Amino acid sequence: MEVILVGLDGLEPTLVEEWEQDLPTLRSLRERGSSGGVRSSDPPLSAPAWPWIFTGKQGGKHGCFGFTKRESGGYGRTPVNYGDIHAESLWEALDAAGVSCGVANVPLSYPPSDLDHGYVVAGWPVPNRVTVSEPPGVVETVERHLDERYRVHPFSMGPELQRASDEEVLADLTDGLWHHQRAFETLVRETDVDVFFCVFMASDVGGHYLGRNRELLHDLYVEVDSALGELLEACPSGVDVVVMSDHGHAALSDWNFYINEWLRQEGYLAVDDATGTDFRSLLRRAGLTRDRLVGVKSALGLDDVRSRLPQPVFDALRRVVPPADPGSEGFDPDRVEWERTEAYSPDQNVVYLNAEETHPQGTVAAADAERTADEIEAKLRELDHPEPGRDDRLVTSVGRKEAVFRGPFTPDAPALVPIADDMRVTVQTGFNDGEVFARDEWSEHRQVGTLVTAGPSFGQTADVDERSILDVYPLVLELVDTAVPENADGEVPGDRLSYDPDPATRESNDGHSEAREYTDDEREEVRDQLNSLGYLE
Fold this sequence. Notes:
By secondary structure, the protein is an alpha/beta fold. The protein contains 19 helices and 20 strands. Strand 11 and strand 12 (about 350-355) form a beta hairpin.
């Protein structure tokens, strides 16, 4: 092995610095090499961020802007997978150059690529009952050494975690963290590759659920550091180490901003039954909520659930029964009157125009698109913060399509990327029974993550410039003397290296695969996973 690239999803750099004395693995890497910030994707969420990292390109060049995409010819949303990312991945670029690569648990890498020189164990989200690795024998090797089934997402789903105490959340995340550590260590010891690329997710989930309990979040960071240390001990001496996060975390959020409800009230979006008289709102008012359903499942126990309430029935009920909090209702395109709608938000922190050029019932002509986006941006920037006593504006930045994205998929990109109170206010997609703001106790992402590098190829540099997550892709290629695709957006961070890099470039090869569409059952399974973790609600 020449390079190990470890993703610690959502690792917050300010917490790493604050708790450095209790994080010996990260402290040692920082002392031996370099540490600095990396700016995340727009918006700084996992779904766009990981494709930015593993392709070295922003969304306009690969077409993935979130966990879902609009279905062809309609307005329904379907989860994306690796086949929807139309750019050459890091492992494909290495494979084409004859450099072997092992990939484990990188988000949005399902279905796994068939490599000539290496393997892929796909990362979340993954449908149930599918082969998660290519070749299949790789995950079988892991399971044989673990003596248990490999879990792509080894943590409880959102509703279960929401009902748990902070101590129970920490125990659940710690168990899942070490499940992945044992799997990754098995791969390092049992396979022979030049580059190993894996991602731990516990720091991200913990950032969301433990952001207000700094003592327990600290304990989780200590566990993450220990797991990283044991993984690196399994690597051969002289390996170059790159540790990074896709974004930061633990911006404490006290409010939700329901942007679709705001768009409706401003006249840009028309919705049926926006006043809470639809079927799901009536179920909620009658007390028939998803929280109670999860409580019944927990009270019965797994065996009783299977006998009295089979999992397929439970999953079907979850799709019908609403959450107790009306603010948790996700964006439902079937409620929208598209012929009277100019703008909408199907995913967090994005606004799309209902453009004639790209939408089947588009209402915004190409000549009016810039004016409409300007108008919505201006109104967003005028919004006051909902916190009593604060006299500042809510929206701290608005990314524009023309500035953020470039490339063949830019027409499908969001027109606006609004960030509220530097991510301290969560931009939600639900309609919230007519309310634009609601209190929250969630912890959200930060725009800047961390990048730590150490090893024979790296210098010892205390002060390095902030980089982009796009730079990780060309950095790894440089470390194994592999040419960088000419259309990559990232640059090799030469200030971290012990030599002056002179990266070669080559023609890009971005037609990596046909889109692999989910079956109807798989689509619902993945949607349930995304719903459970809060990505579609």
